Amino acid sequence: MYKRIISILMMIALLMISTISVSYANKGEYYLNFNLDKEIFYTGEYITGKGIVMHESKGAKNTDISVVVEDITGLSLYKIDQYTTQENGEFFIKFKLPLTLKPDNYVIKVKAFNNMEERTFKLINKENPEEPKEPEKPTPSTSETENKVGKTNISKSPYKKEIDCGWLTISKNEIGKTVALIEVKKEKIEKQISNKSTEKLVIRGDIKEEVDEIIVRIESNFISHISENKKELEFIINELLLKIEASVLDVKDSYFIELRINKDNEIFSKEFTQFSKVYGMRFVSIKGNKVNDINIENPIYMAIKYDLDKDSNFEKIGLYVEDSTEKFKFVGGKIDRDGRIGKEIKIPGKYVVLQYDKKFKDVDIGWANNAIEVLVSRDIINGVDSMNFKPNNTITRGEFCKILVKALDLKPVNSNIIFKDIVDNQMYSEDIKVLASLNIVDGHNGRFRPNNEITREEMVVIIVRALNHIGYEKDNIDKDLKFIDKDNISSWAKEAVSMANSVGIVEGIDKKEFAPKSKASRAETAVMVYRLLKISNLF
Questions:
Q1: CA 152/CA 175 separation, integer angstroms
Q2: How do strand 115-124 and strand 40-42 relate by DSSP bridges?
Q3: 0.70 cut: is pTM over it?
Q4: Is residue 446 predicted with pLDDT exceeding 70?
Q5: Interstrand relation of 232-237 and 200-205 (parallel, antiparallel or unpaired)
Q6: Are 256 and 292 in contact (CB under 8 A)?
Q7: Could you say which DSSP state residue 102 is in?
Q8: For the stretch 255-279, what's the b/e string if a residue is b when 16 or more beta carbons lie within 10 angstroms of its beta carbon?
Q9: 238-279, pLDDT tens digit by residue?
Q10: For labeling, which of 99, 152, 512, 524 is most exposed (least CB within 10 Å)?
C-alpha cells in the first residue's frame, strides 16, 4: 500500500517538474534586455540606448529590433524598424524625435520576437533644462581588492553600483579628483569567453557622472584566461573604444592589470576646433603597492566618439597625439558608422579629436580651395610660410613623393633599388625609397632626378600605381581619351591617364586638354591627391 502511494507521488512530482521545465523553456527561449542611456533628453537631441537579445544563453545575431515611441496614454507617435543585433546579440538605438513633439513624458517600447521592454523618459526644452536627479548612493565599497591595490587612491567612502561587467565605484581621490573604478568580475563575462561565435570580449562602462579619471581593473589570471581563449579585449568606455590582444599585456608578477584613462584640459589656438576631450591612456600592472607601466610594442586600435552637434567638415577632422614637445600633431583616423574616429595608435599617449582650419591669404581658387585646406588640415601638404601657400608654384619629384607617402601612410618593404642621385639623409630620400620599394616610382638610367619639376603625366602615373598598390579596382575603364592633345601624352603614360580620367582624379585643363608635359602646380597636386583619398575612402 505504502509503495503504491509513494509511486503515485513520484509520478505527480515528475509531471510537475516536466510542466515547469517546458514552461520555462518556452518563456526563456529568447531574452531581451534594453536600457536608455539616460532618463531626460532635450528636444532635438538624439534618443540613445542599448540592449541585447539572447537565445539559449548566446547572443542572437542579426535579430530585427522594432522601436515604438508612445505618449503616456498609449498613443503611438513614432516607429522605427531599422535596427539589427550585432554578432554578440547587442544592439544600439539612435534617433531624433520630430520637433513637433512637445516636452512631456514618453514611453519607448523595444520589441524582439515576442519579447518587449518598456522604458519611460522625459523630453524637455534646452532653453529651460531640468537637471536629472542625483543617483542613489549605493552602499560603500568594502571590496577586498581595493585594500590590496596601491596608488589608485580610491577614497574610503565611495559609492558603488553593479554594472554589466562587474562593479562601478565613484569616489574622490586624495587630491580631490573624481575617479571611476570599474572592477571587471569573471562571473559577469564568463559567457563571452565560452561563446565560440565571437573572437572578442567586450568590457563596457557607461559612466554618467562627470569624472577626471577612469580605471578599468582586471585580475591578471583572468587576463591569462582570456589570452588562452584567443580573445581580443574590446573596451567601450563612454566615448572611447579600445581594442587590444590580451596576449600583449604582460601579467607576470602582478595581481591586476589596469587601463587608466585621464581626462585633461588643453587650450588650442583659434585655428583648431576641439571635438572631444583630451584622453591620456596607459596600461599598468599592479602588485601590492607596486605600479608599473606596461610597454606595448605593437599599435592598438583606438577610436573616440566626437561631438556631432558642432559644425564640421569631416574630411578635416582627425586624431591628434601629444608629442615629446607637448604639442599635438595629426596622426590620421577614419570615421566609423558609430560616429567615432579611429586609428591604430601607440600607448601610453595623450589623444584628442580636432579639426584644423587653416586659411592662406593667396588661396582663392574655387576648384582647389577645399582640397588644399583638407590636405593642410591632415598634415599632408603645408604652406610655404604661415600666410602663403603659393598655389601656382611648381613641385619637384622629391616633394611629391613625400606628399604621397604621408597621404597614404605608406611603409617600405625590403628592396635593393638604389638611385645614383639619392643618398641617405638627403631631403625626401626616405620617401623616395618607400615608393621605390613598392614599385610605385622608378628612375631612368639609375637616377631619380628628385629636384626636377614633376610633369602632369609623371604625377598621374605615380598616383595610378599608388591606387593599384592599395587595392583599388574599377571595371570598364574608358581607354578612348577625349583630350584634344592626347597624341602628346607619352606612350608609357597613356594607360594611367585613361585610368585617372575614368575614376575622376584628372579632368584636364578646361576639360579639353590634358597638357601632359606641363609642370604640375601645387594647387593641381593638392586636387589630384585629394581625389585619390576620396575615391579610396580614406577619410
A1: 12
A2: parallel
A3: no
A4: yes
A5: parallel
A6: no
A7: P
A8: bbbbbbbbbeeeeeeeebbbbbbbb
A9: 999 999 999 899 888 888 999 999 998 888 988 999 999 999
A10: 99
| DSSP sequence for 221-285 | HHHHHHHHTTPEEEEEETTEEEEEEGGGS--TT-SEEEEEEEEE-----TTEEE-S-EEEEEEEE
Q: Residue 152 above 50 pLDDT?
A: no
Query: Comparing C-alpha atoms, which of 518, 514, 522 is closest to residue 394?
Result: 522
Question: What's the chain's length in residues?
Answer: 539
The string of pLDDT tens digits covering residues 363-416 is 999 999 999 999 999 999 999 999 999 999 999 999 999 999 999 999 988 877
Amino acid at 443: G
The DSSP output letter for 512 is T
What are residue 213's phi and psi, to 5 degrees?
-145, 145
Residue 207 class from Cβ within 10 Å (0-12 exposed, 13-18 middle, 19+ buried)? middle
What 3-state class would DSSP assign to 372? helix
Contact partners, residue 372, CB within 8 Å, separation at least 6: 360, 363, 365, 381, 389, 391, 523, 526
Burial category of 363 from C-beta neighbours within 10 Å (exposed 0-12, middle 13-18, buried 19 and up):
buried
**Cα distance between residue 245 and residue 288, in whole Å:** 25
Q: How far is CA 25 from the centre of its chain?
A: 39
Side chain identity, residue 221: N
Sign of the alpha-carbon dihedral angle for 295, 297, 301, 306 = positive
- Give how far Cα 199 sits from Cα of 60, 244, 246, Å: 15, 12, 11
Q: Do the bridges between strand 334-335 and strand 340-345 make them parallel or antiparallel, or are there none, so unpaired?
A: antiparallel
Rg of the chain, C-alpha, whole Å: 30
List, in sequence order, every residue forming a beta bridge with 399; answer none if it has no partner. none
Half-sphere exposure of 370 (CA within 13 A, CB side): 8
- The SS3 assignment for 522 reads helix
Residues 45-104 pLDDT 10s? 899 999 888 877 678 888 889 999 988 777 888 888 778 899 888 899 998 888 878 888
Read off φ and ψ for residue 431, nearest 5 degrees: -65, -40
Q: pLDDT class for 237, splitting at 50, 70, 90?
A: very high
| Residue 139, pLDDT score | 37
pLDDT in tens, 301-316: 999 998 766 777 889 9
pLDDT at residue 127 in the model: 58
d(CA 125, CA 111): 28
Return the half-sphere exposure (C-beta side, CA atoms, 13 A cut-off) of residue 78. Answer: 15
Q: Strand pairing partners for 261?
A: 214, 281
